[in-house]
Amino acid sequence: MATDVVTMDRIVSLSKRRGFVFPSSEIYGGVGSTYDYGHYGVLLKTNVKGEWWRSMLQERDDIVAIDSAIIQSPRVWEASGHLAGFSDPLVDCRTCGRRFRADHLDQAQCGRRPSLHPGEFAECDLTEARDFNLMFETTVGPVRESGSTVYLRPETAQGIFINFKNVLQFSRKKPPFGIAQIGKSFRNEITPGNFTFRVREFEQAELEFFVPQDGNDLEWFQQWVTARKKWYSDYGVRADRLRFYELTPEERPFYAKAGIDVEYLFPWGWGELESIAHRGTYDLDRHIEYSGKDLQFFDEASKAKYTPILIESSAGMDRTTLTMLIDAFDRETIVEGEKQTERTVLRFHPKIAPVQVGVFPLARNKPELVERAQGIERGLRPAFRTQYDEGNVGQLYRRQDEIGTPFCIMIDYQTLDDATVTVRDRDSMKQDRVGADALAGYLSERLG
Ligand code: ATP
Fold it and tell me: Which residues contact 73 (CB under 8 A, 6 or more apart)?
């Protein structure tokens, strides 16, 4: 696939046309950079999250799950440092009235001369940069009074740290072990953009892995980098568009011993998908200090108490879903004799494809074909994500290609004679004739 076939215009329009992602509140003119997921987007993102959970819970026995609240005690954000320091540098332009992130000026467009960056046009009049806290504030209870201010969580991780003791008590785990969570986070981003890449509400998948103070912490960090590399490659993300950028000591927080940003080559350039960090004992130490509670681990064997070291993997599920869409996107020219047609196809890995098997009758006005097709589709449902559809054959294939369905099954007149069906492979477009009773085996072998 040529790299220039995928553009954001194509992704955005396909997303809307095929029901992956819609601009939010569109009938009221929209709210900037806020999106709603349509049916296929929900399925895709659910599958991406499901595969993340599978890798954390099903394939290992050293991680437990949690689902913590979005609104937490404001003290949590004091302890975590978000109240004091979770800000981006904001500059205003007095000429065009726009706001920019001071550290992203080279990626922004001047309000008056879009070909220039803010500050480059002679009439630009930028203010000094000032800190802008990214946390959304709201109030709890019926009266807006002091002490009622709370925040929408800007990350899910703190919900894990504050439950560390609860988890230890019931789970019978001891370091090394992890706590994993997927949930919504909120950040009042100064300059959201690039479709669902930078939005103000998004889902994060975070793993906090607690390891003993036995000198193997950097080894654990490396193990997690390897595990996460494997995760992306298991779902077919192109290796040449993925990189693991090692943060320099200057780029890391002072308490972090190592850090890697997982980055994908989006149509506009490299962007972060996930960060993997060695966070030392910083987070638990801070909560011990602010809550006054003992969050250390008591090791029965050595009779010693210690604060476990933390290895964190923090991935954005909206960014990962967008990556899967972009990475799967392809357009190709099909030559049939004299005729040339273009097709758009999403080459999703079968594990994350919203629909795995499409089933159609050759003609919708032939009850015996329709019945047979519906029966076959129902029979496959327990094992696969299926969809029955009917209509013009060319359009049926086109629609399934554009939502990335790996296999389509056509029920035709021959099916009525010899109980075989046609199975079309999305990527090669090759068709196989398969016995209806052998279909489930045929598909499970290929869908994995
Ligand atoms: P960025 O530098 O892009 O703002 P960050 O370094 O602040 O990201 P983290 O705090 O490390 O991001 O959050 C972990 C992950 O959460 C990111 O790698 C990303 O996938 C996701 N994420 C963070 N902010 C957003 C956002 N505004 N929209 C969508 N996903 C986000």
Answer: none
Q: 344 to each of 21, 23, 76, 113, 426, how far by Cα in Å?
A: 17, 22, 47, 34, 11
Please, what is the average pLDDT of the chain? 95
In sequence order, which residues have a C-beta less than 8 Å from that of residue 242 and are 6 or more positions away? 232, 262, 263, 264, 265
CA distance 151 to 27: 29
The stretches of 56-183 forming alpha helices (DSSP H) are: 74-80, 82-85, 157-161, 164-171
| CA–centroid distance, residue 316 to ligand 1 (Å) | 6
Q: Give 349's contacts (C-beta < 8 A, 6+ positions apart).
A: 234, 235, 236, 324, 328
Testing ligand 1's pocket by substitution, the residue of 133, 189, 204 carrying the most ligand atoms inside 8 A of its CB is: 204
- Supply the pTM of this predicted model: 0.93
pLDDT at 2 over 50: no
What residues does ligand 1 touch, defined as CB less than 6 Å away? 155, 187, 189, 198-199, 202, 204, 272-275, 314-316, 318-319
CA distances from 238 to 229, 368, 386, 405, 427 (A): 11, 44, 26, 19, 16
